[in-house]
Every structure is written in C-alpha cells, then in structure tokens.
Specification:
Layout: H1 2-6, E1 11-12, H2 22-27, H3 34-45, E2 47-49, E3 55-57, H4 59-67, E4 71-76, H5 87-104, E5 109-114, E6 122-125, H6 126-138, H7 141-147, H8 151-172, H9 177-189, H10 191-200, H11 202-217, H12 225-246
Parallel strand pairs: 4-5
Antiparallel strand pairs: 1-2, 2-3, 5-6
Helix pairs in contact: 3-5, 4-5, 5-8, 8-11, 9-11, 9-12, 10-11, 11-12
Length: about 250
C-alpha cells in the first residue's frame, strides 16, 4: 500500500465532481489570505487516481507534492482560448501557484505553453502571458468598442475581464498598480463606456466597481486617492440605482 501511494502522481476532483474550488472562494469573497485558497485547492483536488483509474482521497499526499513544486505549466493548442476565457484557467493553474506558495513557502516558476502554431511553439512566463492577454484584449480599445456593440452581454464580458484580472492577481500576483488603474479608467471612469454600461447593464458597472474596490481593500492595489474617490462615488450611485430598480 505504501509503494502504491508513493507512486501517486495524478490528482484531481472527487469522482463525479468538477472544479478546483478556488473560483468559488474568490467569487464569494470567502477568503482572507492565500492559505484559504490553498485549503480550497486541496479539498477539491486531493484525490489521487491510480493506474486503474480508481480515485483515492489523498489530501496529504497532494499537499506534499504541492510543497515541492518547482515549475507549473499550462499548455494551450488553440488561439481561441486564453487565460481570460474562463475562471477555470485561474482556478486550476492559479490555484496551484497559490497552494504551492502557501504550503512550500515560495512561488514555483510558472509558464504557459502556446502551440497554436505548431511550426512556432512558444513558452512564456505566466506573468508575460497575462500581460500579453490583458494588453491585447481586455484593455484594447477595439475590443472594448466591439463589446459595446453587444449590449447587456458585452458589458457582462467586461465585468468578467475585470473579475478575472483580480482573481489572477489573488492567486499569482500578476497584476500591478498600472493595470488596475487602466482597467478602472477604461471600464468605469471613461464617460462613454460608463454611460453605455449604465444604460444596458448597470449590474456589470456595479460589479466592476466593487471588484476594484475589493482589490484596494485587500491591499492588492495602491490606488490614487482621486481615482479611488471617484470610483467610490460611482459605486454608491450605481448601488442606489439598482436598489431603485429592485423596488
């Protein structure tokens, strides 16, 4: 039995379940530090699968593996998906980074492999890939304009980008003050975008404002005071508008 357990290398969710747990914790704001994220990752991923495909509850073995990680890698073979396409990317890869750092005391080196062009395979650090995706998509004026053509759903996509940026920062520390500033300026403080969002989906505007304020509250973003004051005003005004709508 000891020999069999020593060979455990493949870990995953409980049989019949799906998820890494981290996304739920972040969405529900039910965490204080990365140890809480690590606990969720262990609880959901601590099932070892043996050579016969049978699952074994092995939280301790999984924790031991995470403690000794040197490198994490997430490979992508299509340009149709990226780090911001789903919170699963952060829940699994980002969750592994957070858990390894919390349990082992240091962050592993983290990479993203890109084989969307088989003749030109590239490997970037997670931080580089995150910056590339955010700059080319989430903060791209053409992308924002494109989302504005899709009404309610377009605003929802922008809120999703803001939340995923915050979530990646929570697990992997890939954001910086400049990126938080630009997301706030582009999604909330830009008069044209804000007025459009207030019209088609004020819930999205409220969520983005709340996400940015949470990042500031948790010390993840050193926001300029003037920007922070304006953001708070918009958040409170939107909250009042939504209350009136619900009544």
């Amino acid at each position: 039995a000891a020999l069999k357990e020593a060979r455990y290398r493949v870990f995953g969710c409980p049989p019949g379940a799906y998820g890494a747990g981290v996304g739920n914790v972040l969405d529900e704001k039910n965490w204080e530090n990365e140890s809480d994220l690590a606990d969720a990752y262990l609880a959901w991923g601590g099932y070892a699968y043996d050579e016969n495909g049978a699952a074994h509850a092995s939280k301790e073995a999984f924790a031991q593996r995470l403690k000794t990680l040197d490198v994490t890698v997430k490979n992508e073979d299509t340009s149709d998906l990226n780090l911001m396409s789903s919170d699963d990317f952060n829940a699994y890869h980002g969750g592994m980074v957070a858990a390894s750092r919390a349990l082992g005391g240091k962050a592993p080196r983290s990479y993203v492999g890109d084989s969307s062009q088989r003749s030109r395979v590239q490997v970037r650090t997670l931080a580089e890939e995150f910056q590339r995706v955010v700059q080319s998509e989430a903060l791209n004026p053409k992308y924002i304009k494109g989302m504005m053509e899709h009404g309610y759903k377009g605003a929802l996509e922008l809120a999703k980008r803001a939340m995923l940026s915050y979530s990646w920062d929570a697990t992997s520390g890939v954001m910086n003050d400049a990126l938080y500033n630009r997301i706030t300026e582009s999604y909330v403080l830009d008069p044209e975008v804000r007025e459009w969002m207030q019209k088609v989906n004020p819930w999205a505007l409220h969520e983005i404002s709340e996400t940015m304020l949470e990042a500031r509250q948790r010390g993840m973003w050193n926001a300029p005071e003037e920007m922070l004051a304006e953001l708070r005003d918009i958040y409170l005004a939107t909250e009042g508008d939504l209350e009136e709508r619900s009544e």
